[in-house]
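Each letter names a residue; the fold follows as tokens. Both lines appear below:
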Amino acid sequence: MSRQKIKQVIERCLPDAGLVESGISGVKLFRVTEPVPCMPAVYEPTIVAIVGGTKEAILGGKRHVYDSDRYLCCPMSMPVAAGTPTASADNPLLGVLVSLDVGMMSTLIIETANAAAPGRFPGDDKAAPGLALAHWDAPFTEALLRLVRLGDDPVDEAVLGAGRLREFFYAVLKGEAGGSVRRAFGVGNEIAQTIRFLSARLNEPVTIDDMAARAGMSRAVFHRKFKQATTLSPIQFAKCMRLNHAAMSIAGGKSVSEAAWDVGYASPSQFSREFKRLYGQSPNRWSRAGQLPKELPKGIM
């Protein structure tokens, strides 16, 4: 019933395809009404909850399909292929995107750990995946409904917004994706910190030794832990992040040379070779064939 009420809020706010801010920082509602094949994208730390239709993301060859039964938790920036292959006017993709706030999440994790009994969260010592699917439980669903309903009253948004967002994040922490979030924002989050470091320097040369030193690990240990967390080796991950950002820029209308330069490729031929190796076609061909549908809201791929 609560999921249906969330759906009604989105339908009321978005009678047509689009993406709108809810009035609370980092919370957006979206509606997609035409199919989009899986295309290169970069997921930022986000929770994506679908209340109508189906969405999918591919990371390291593994396909993650989520809908109104399971939500997606992406606690770290991830280079993926993502799409909405079944969306249509009769069966639109409807959902909520909530950006994970680093400061609020870190504070919540510390407070939760201090209040919880030892061993309250078994398995947190294991490597958590870069993408996690979690079932909609009652606390998550109710917290999300209260969050999106704030859009009905600007005063409620201003007064209650931060508290409702905190409640929602706490529900995520207590749910099936909690381990992934704690690993990304709590103690032992060296891999997530390294990814944030890399993401801010896509146009600079960053080596595996740089990343390992940043994480305070030996090269071998860093490589193993990084791959456990992301399914990709550090070098594969860095290359995918750069090329996915470039592909998105090209699809958004940038020239091939501009997109290559923005992610640190000084050699157009090297960029073209690596782009074709990853996507199966040259960047020039991609610029003609890889354009996003005009109605697709930017930011939800």
Remarks:
- The chain has a mean pLDDT of 86.
- The first strand starts at residue 18 and ends at 21.
- The chain has twelve helices and ten strands.
